[in-house]
Amino acid sequence: MPDTLDLFADPIDLTTSLVDVRSVSGEEAEIADLVERSLRVHAPHLEITRSGNSVLARTNLGKERRVVLAGHLDTVPINQNFPSRRDGDVLHGCGTVDMKGGDAVMLAVAALSGSARHDLTFVFYDCEEIEAERNGLTRIQRELEEWLLGDLAIVCEPSNGTVEAGCQGTMRVEVRTTGKRAHTARAWMGSNAIHGMGEALRRLDAYEPRQPEIDGCRFHEGLQAVKISGGVAGNVVPDEAVLTVNHRFAPDRSVEQAEQHLREVFEGFEVVVTDFAGGALPGLQAPAARELVEAAGGTPVAKLGWTDVARFAALGMPAVNFGPGDPTLAHTQEEHVPVHQITGCFDVLKRFLLD
């Protein structure tokens, strides 16, 4: 591993160098040290601080607006896709999509940020790919919240180089039925909880999800059974069944409204919420967001999955996803990115923030 990265190098080369540093979740110390050293050497104009294995840097130019750029340094476990491999105009390897291409673009912008149009904050954080309580943004918000605040947040997660605005919320619930145990030879003496789940499944099969349009972006909600369990033994009528359902809801609904909706869908059943995260409105009417869209060209689209843009939206900021790579390749052994997307994202952010 080099002592420092040349942040003025081609962002494609920066991506390759970052991919070639192993940084599975919980093992980010090496890459965080490298990022910190590189920023201190090549971007001495930045104020830099450290939070665990997260590196934070910002300009203090006295500009009217501040834009926050965020990217996680960790990857999912390596799956015979390390180190990187270049095949023509495609870079292969763990993290090429999720999301070291985005991190490289952030580093390249940071090196040039001494004359930025807006004040900029760069957040390189750890442990995004695992449980939320270990996510570096959770710690940073608790201890250094002012470092996350601004007029626009850009999370450089893979978006195929397109501005993906906001994100949908997610909620998991357990739909429960109860019955009475009996011997299957005398099943009429019991009540089968699994059979009792039939109506809940019929309602799911007939469900028609909303597709609201917000700020010109069309969201597409979803309601899917993801797990079902029940049964005691091969000769016993089961007295309990549990259906786990995942709901993806558009950001014009709050967590409370989403829960109420699910209770209406499954009226008559016991419903227990087990996990949830609110969505993020696109916020494309904010001045800084409009400038980014203009620099990027094309038409922004809705982010249908949940990302950390929701954390920034909860702080009262418009937030978007914008980064190189196809998100459908994230976490796969075949992870790869066309290098022109890395260059393209850098060019857009350079136009928006620096030119």
Describe this structure in words.
By secondary structure, the protein is α+β, with helices and mostly antiparallel strands. The chain is built from nine helices and 19 strands. The protein has helices at residues 11-19, 29-42, 96-111, 136-144, 198-206, 255-265, 287-296, 309-314, 339-353, and strands at 47-51, 54-58, 66-72, 85-87, 90-92, 119-125, 152-155, 164-165, 169-178, 182-183, 213-214, 217-218, 222-230, 236-237, 240-249, 270-277, 301-302, 319-321, 336-338. It is elongated, with a radius of gyration of 23 Å. The mean pLDDT is 96.
Q: Top keywords for this entry?
A:
single chain; 355 residues; 19 strands; 9 helices; alpha+beta; eight-stranded mixed β-sheet
Give the count of helical stretches.
9
What is the alpha-carbon Rg in Å? 23 Å
* Estimated structural class: alpha+beta
Using the alpha-carbon principal axes, give the shape.
Answer: elongated
- The proportion of strand residues reads 25-35%
Lateral arrangement of strands in the main beta sheet: 1-2-6-3-7-18-8-17
Q: Secondary-structure element order, as H and E? A: HHEEEEEHEHEEEEHEEEEEHEHEHEEH
Largest sheet report: 8 strands, mixed
Count the E strands: 19
Mean pLDDT: 96
* N→C terminal distance: 32 Å
Helix content: 25-40%
Contiguous low-pLDDT stretches (5 residues minimum) are: none
Structure summary:
By secondary structure, the chain is α+β, with helices and mostly antiparallel strands. The protein has helices spanning 11-19, 29-42, 96-111, 136-144, 198-206, 255-265, 287-296, 309-314, 339-353, and strands at residues 47-51, 54-58, 66-72, 85-87, 90-92, 119-125, 152-155, 164-165, 169-178, 182-183, 213-214, 217-218, 222-230, 236-237, 240-249, 270-277, 301-302, 319-321, 336-338. Helix 1 packs across helix 3, helix 3 packs parallel to helix 9 and helix 7 crosses helix 9.
